[in-house]
Specification:
Number of helices: 4
Strand content: 15-25%
Structural class: alpha+beta
Shape: globular
Strand order of the largest sheet: 1-2
Distance between the termini: 22 Å
Order of helices and strands: EHHEHH
Oligomer: single chain
């Protein structure tokens, strides 16, 4: 894994899913940090790929940190996250 690299995949939300899924699989294998921008429509499939890559616990840890930071600056976490 490449620790200093962030890969942003936008295709999951607006583009060709057939191209985006293999790219996401490869990114989960090759990069420490993967940011999925506008992937909400494909959330179930993304979660499946995260689980298949064995990175669900890691994703939950990052999500917990993000929600905590958001709450610390006065935001209101009103919805339960899916991941």
């Amino acid at each position: 894994m490449t620790p200093e690299t962030v890969l942003v995949l936008r295709a999951l939300g607006i583009g060709d899913l057939a191209t985006a899924v293999p790219a996401l699989r490869a990114a989960l294998d090759d990069f420490e940090t993967v940011v999925i921008y506008k992937g909400g429509r494909q959330l179930a499939q993304v979660l499946g790929l995260v689980r298949a890559a064995g990175r669900e616990d890691e994703a939950m840890a990052h999500l917990t940190t993000a929600v905590t930071l958001f709450a610390d600056v006065g935001g209101q976490a009103t919805a339960a996250p899916e991941i």
